[in-house]
Structures are given as C-alpha cells and as structure tokens.
Amino acid sequence: MYGAFYCELYLTLIRVFSWLVLLGRGQASNDVEIMVLRHEVAVLKRQVVRPKPDWADRALLAALARFLPPTLRAHRLVAPGTLLAGIGV
Question: pTM of the entire structure?
C-alpha cells in the first residue's frame, strides 16, 4: 500500500527536478542540443541500414558536441573523439 505511494512520490520528484534542471540551463545550451539532435536526425534519414556520416557530418557533430554538458554528451550517437578519429584528425 505504501510502496505504490512512495513510488509515485519518487517519480513525481524526479520529474520536478528534471524540469528545474531544464529551467536552469542556458538558452545557448538548449540551442546547441537542438542543433545536434536535428543534424543527427538528418544523418539518420539519409541512411537505410547503418548510419555512415561523411567527414562534414563528423566534423559538425564533433564541434557541436563539445558545447553540450557532459551528461548530454554521453547520450549522443558517438563521442567527439570517435568522430574526429573517423576523419583522421
């Protein structure tokens, strides 16, 4: 009986804290995240089986990903180092 209450309370608090984090982020951080997500979607739309970004895609994603907070950077398709290694930098 109390377990369900605490579960709901926990989920509600997590949601509220995530909203507070979003409110605390700067507009530039939000804009960069949106740009990265849009470019990733564009790359994925061009692919049929497996994403194969060309050198320009890799360079753009690597440059933009460096501006993301570390927690968001961890959830990208690939890390900036991997992107740069693919173009021989």
Answer: 0.37
